[in-house]
């Protein structure tokens, strides 16, 4: 979840390390730090909290060097503090780390027994000690690094500086992402291509278990066993321009507005706009007897919407499970199934582990990912892309709608392959789906309804979201968005489930957001709404113009463009996101970097 960077440069590195950390700050922002080699010594600067605190420190106390490493932290072992900030040091060694060293406790005890003194509560400090111990035993740096790596279990990406080695940064990856970047007489390692964006787009993706040594001449790459190996260099699209906020106040606001483009772009990977045929990207859904979707958080809600579509359109049995549960039971999944991971980052630890579990059992794997170079994308049999572009706001918006758009397209393709629809119906459904970007844009423009409602919700302590059918996952998503960025407690429920318990929560102080397009389920949801109103509940109804005509006077309405039920999850996602965003802004919350969260959850 942390971001790491290492530079062997010709020009000063301090500012460049910070620039890269700024791009990686979405991964964690509990503390930040850099270390650099100066006259044969390692010096470091570390600050608790956001990167700006480190920048202020560097302004007072600069580091002038051309070789260095940097880190932005999402705390796992040890509270956020300067003492626990990275780089962690021991003797001649400084280390930055993303991941968790699972056996750090016995290693630490062993090192302490050998007289080594620890300064932090982190698991990372163990790595610095292990390398330093091997250096002290006379090994050269790469050999010392290998001996240390062989003792670690868990998931990690590391960058390492060694005192006395003026032109060397070492790195390793196991379970957490790390890439190498090639510049002009300079070399880089970092968490992802985005972090290296300002310096180079010539990127080498490492395999799991690889470790590397970079210097001014280039890179040496070794596999897990220590064999020198070559890995392909790719020129990735220059991402630098894509991660600016432009005129928006927050990345989340920008990314909400990016959604028509993101969906359009994603759909272009699936639908031929001339023939309105939908591609399944090489998968024969007729040969699949069950679809198992695994994902976490918002991506799992996209998966739940996907289930409605795959079952109703294609008659394909579909299960959705959060990856952290799936991986630790013994799912009765057999070859013949397709395991589909949904993930913006393509790096989420639990989702990746669930995929690997399936792969080991001979089950075909696919990943619907937004990061084409991610670990998931590289490990699965089939990649289904979303083209949302980099999503920086921690709360997912455009990645979610792009996932839903792609799943809708795939469900149409599956329906056709499985003989549930003919070519005319395929073309009709594709045409409906292609309207989604325009309707999403209309829903964004039409947000005049929301400020007054946001004022009201910002004062609430608890909020309930209700929906039926594909609107149920949206209710869950709405509640998640609100909690994560405005810190208001919120729950999403299936509207029909209300009277089985949650209705006891209904009182005048609890806003209830009902998501109900005027579709076949509208009357049912409307009855649930009446039950709430009868008990004094304050209802906000998100619906279309037709639905609004049925709203009682006491109900506040948010009206979105009328649309075909196929694309209602895409259009109705917009007010859900805008409400959460506006409430968070009213509350003065840190919208793009909410407390305790990180964008990419690469630890369990
Ligand atoms: C919430 C959110 C998270 C992610 C989840 C999975 O707004 O963004 O719930 O959806 O952490 O992340 P990815 O999609 O990267 O696997």
Can you characterise this structure?
The protein has 604 residues and is of the alpha/beta class. The protein folds into three domains: 3-245, Aminohydrolase, N-terminal nucleophile (Ntn) domain (Glutamine Phosphoribosylpyrophosphate, subunit 1, domain 1, 4-Layer Sandwich); 257-434, Rossmann fold (3-Layer(aba) Sandwich), CATH 3.40.50.10490; 443-586, 3-Layer(aba) Sandwich (Rossmann fold). Helices cover 36% and strands 24% of the residues. The chain has 20 helices and 27 strands. The protein has an eight-stranded antiparallel beta sheet. A seven-stranded antiparallel beta sheet has the order 5-6-7-8-12-13-14. The chain has a five-stranded parallel beta sheet with strand order 19-18-20-21-22, sandwiched between helices. Helix 8 packs antiparallel against helix 15. The relative contact order is 0.09. The mean pLDDT is 91. Residues 296-299, 343-345, 348, 351, 395-396, 480, 484, 600-601 line the site of fructose -6-phosphate.
């Amino acid at each position: 979840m942390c971001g790491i960077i290492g530079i062997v440069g010709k020009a000063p590195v301090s500012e460049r390390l910070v620039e890269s950390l700024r791009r990686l700050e979405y991964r964690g922002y509990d503390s930040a730090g850099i270390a650099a080699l100066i006259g044969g010594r390692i010096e470091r600067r570390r600050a608790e909290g956001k990167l700006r605190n480190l920048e202020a420190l560097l302004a007072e106390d600069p580091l002038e060097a051309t070789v260095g490493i940097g880190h932005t932290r999402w705390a796992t072992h040890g509270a956020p503090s300067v003492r626990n900030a990275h780089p962690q040091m021991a003797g001649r060694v400084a280390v930055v780390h993303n991941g968790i060293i699972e056996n750090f406790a016995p290693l630490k005890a062993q090192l302490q027994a050998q007289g080594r003194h620890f300064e932090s509560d982190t698991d990372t400090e163990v790595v610095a000690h292990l390398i330093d111990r091997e250096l002290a035993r006379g090994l050269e740096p790469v050999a010392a690094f290998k001996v240390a790596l062989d003792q670690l279990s868990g998931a990690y990406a590391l960058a390492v500086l060694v005192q006395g080695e003026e032109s060397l940064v070492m790195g390793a990856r196991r379970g957490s992402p790390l890439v190498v970047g090639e510049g002009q007489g300079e070399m880089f390692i970092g968490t992802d291509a985005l972090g290296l964006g300002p310096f180079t787009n010539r990127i080498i993706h490492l395999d799991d278990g690889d470790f590397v040594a970079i210097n001014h001449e280039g890179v040496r790459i070794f596999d897990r066993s220590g064999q020198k190996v070559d890995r392909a260099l790719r020129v990735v699209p220059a991402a630098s321009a894509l991660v600016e906020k432009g005129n928006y106040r927050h990345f989340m606001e920008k990314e909400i507005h990016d959604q028509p483009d993101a969906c359009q772009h994603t759909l272009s990977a699936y639908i031929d706009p001339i023939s309105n045929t939908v591609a399944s990207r090489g998968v024969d859904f007729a040969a699949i007897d069950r679809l198992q979707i695994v994902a976490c958080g918002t991506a799992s809600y996209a998966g739940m919407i996907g289930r409605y579509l795959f079952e109703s359109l294609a008659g394909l049995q579909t299960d959705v499970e959060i990856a952290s549960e799936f991986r630790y039971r013994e799912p009765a999944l057999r070859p013949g199934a397709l395991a589909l991971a949904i993930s913006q980052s393509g790096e989420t630890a639990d989702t990746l582990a669930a995929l690997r579990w399936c792969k080991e059992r001979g089950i075909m794997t696919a990943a619907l990912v937004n990061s084409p170079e991610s670990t998931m994308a590289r490990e699965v049999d089939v990649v289904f892309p979303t083209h949302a572009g980099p999503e920086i706001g921690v709360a997912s918006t455009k990645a979610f709608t792009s996932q839903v758009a792609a799943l809708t397209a795939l469900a149409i393709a599956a329906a056709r392959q499985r003989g549930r629809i003919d070519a005319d119906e395929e073309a009709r459904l594709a045409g409906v789906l292609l309207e989604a970007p325009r309707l999403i844009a209309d829903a964004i423009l039409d947000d005049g309804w929301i400020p007054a409602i946001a004022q009201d919700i910002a004062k609430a302590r608890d909020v309930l979201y209700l929906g039926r059918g594909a609107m149920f996952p949206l209710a869950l998503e709405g509640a998640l968005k609100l909690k994560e960025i405005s810190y208001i407690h919120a729950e999403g429920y299936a509207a029909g489930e209300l009277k089985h318990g949650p209705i006891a929560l209904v009182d005048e102080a609890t806003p209830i957001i009902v998501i109900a397009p005027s579709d076949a389920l509208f009357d049912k949801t409307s009855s649930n709404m009446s039950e709430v109103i009868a008990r004094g509940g304050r209802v906000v109804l998100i619906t279309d113009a037709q639905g609004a005509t049925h709203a009682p006077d006491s109900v506040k309405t948010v009206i979105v463009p009328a649309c075909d039920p196929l694309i209602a999850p895409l259009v109705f996602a917009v007010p859900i996101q805008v409400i959460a965003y506006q409430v968070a802004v009213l509350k003065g919350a840190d919208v793009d970097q909410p407390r305790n969260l990180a964008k990419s959850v690469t630890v369990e």
